[in-house]
Amino acid sequence: MTVHPPVTVVGAGPAGLAAASAATAAGARVRLIDAEPSPGGQYLRGDALGRAYDGAKVHGARVPDGVDYLPDTEVWALEPLPGGGARLHLRTGPADGSGGAVGAGRADPVGRPGPSTGRTTGEPDAAPPSGTTADDRPGPMGVRSAPSTRPRADDGRAAPLEATSTVAVHTVDAPVLVLATGAHDRVLPFPGWDLPGVVTAGAAQALAKSQRTAIGHNAVVAGTGPFLLPVARSLHGVGARVAAVLEAGAPVSGWLGDPGGAAAGLGKLGELAGHTAALARRRVPYRTRTAVIEAHGDGALEAVTTARLDPRWRPLPGTERTIAADALCLGFGFTPRLEAAIAAGCATSGGFVRVDAAQATSARGVFAAGEPTGIGGAALAAAEGEVAGTAAARAAGHPVAPPLGALRRVRTGRRFAAGLAAAHPIGPGWKEWPRDDTLVCRCEEVALRDLHAAARSAPGGRAFRLASRAGLGLCQGRVCGRNTAELIGLTDEDARRFDRRPIAVPIRLGDLADDT
Amino acid sequence: MSEYLTVTVDGERVTAVPGQTVAALLIGLGRRSWRTTRGEGRPRGIFCGIGVCFDCLVVVNGEPDVRACRRRVADGDAIRVQHGAQTPS
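^ inputs. structure came back:
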């Protein structure tokens, strides 16, 4: 009997769920790994409050039956396997919790809350996230785990969130791998952007959609791209006032300049028109060619200064206005999350993972779908996921027909994405927004003048990073990498260094000691 | 599973909801910042909201460097602001 390797999917957003579904339908065994406690990723984010965690079904985002689903699991490192695919180093449990290290005396072997957690309640025999029992299966699933700390799911139920208190560090071999790791908001720096109350549009959206929490009472939404509109609408939905939505670009002229791309996304345009109408009903001002160029406040945001921009995004003198706001939600498009793909050996091009028509990367056995291959939104991500999942099942030895419908939707979606990118370019004039003392790297507190000083004393790549410390903090350049590269004018090769993160997520040494 | 959770924030007893993140709990309490930076002691709160930026770090049950935006509140949690680089207590 031929034993087919499983298909491992990282990321349970639109792309990852579609990949898991397609690979399952093709007959593959599928393992789905996701950092969040429930599926959906950022786009299909559901209300997480007041419900027992029921594992696989939340708000339209559904893990297909039969999939070995590992929620609450971060891939903290990944290395290529000689025969193709990658070995994934995983950490399952409450975000940034500890307790996996028996040797350090932090948790007992059956996963009861350890002394360091200080919890007063919690079910001592809490079931773990389901996937940690995968290593009970023989052979090709290839899970290695530390048996002494492996939590048990006796009845197969997922645990209520608050009862899961033990972290498990384990390793999974994924000879056939689909990476659907998504993206995060890009934010451009300007004076005051590090004040509390200044957040990404994605943060405001996540708080509103999953947590029914408004980031502030009186919000300004600013940046560029169609994502600003649903964020403003969500803020209204949780009771915040939206003082203004500020689009730095001029999207209408951008759309007119590319009728083919716009036509490819008519459905999406309808969705955006709905958001626009909802904001108009509430009389929310929507201004184009306008940006926030300074945030003010003593310890937290109190007001913002806006300015009109020229077509290159340079602020026009004399157009400044000050608006009171306790929240500023910023989004300048999205930055793909590439570290897993880069660690797996996938070639990138223009800041994205290079894939062929079957979503295969340059690394054998590794497929990619969704934002890491190009920013295009949820519908394109799902279509790419379906193609990737089908191709991955084929790579795992299952005969499958080409997913013609999904392939067609990928082609259409990419035309729309190209139109979207053309309509919302980042204007180079943003580089005039930060002042000498504006922080560019928030983690290491590196100001613009420090970047310039480092660039003078240590030009080029690694030396520049070490001299400036930009991108060497906990976020590993995710927030500042591209901004720094553009501000300093780094070469593409040096800019790519910001995307290399051998340790994808910081992990506690005590947990590492347990990864035997 | 109980309907509410009881936790402490800087020593004060407060009520949380199952599934709630530490960040949402703190924002709901009117907090806007809950960390100071290592270098210049700048105030920080939530920023990216999805676990990427590590700005919203908080101390939970003596353990520092917990991302408030990703960590779900558990009953009995002791949540504290984080000042600079802290070691576990």
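The longest strand of chain B covers residues 5-9. The mean pLDDT of chain B is 93.
thumbs up if we can close this ticket
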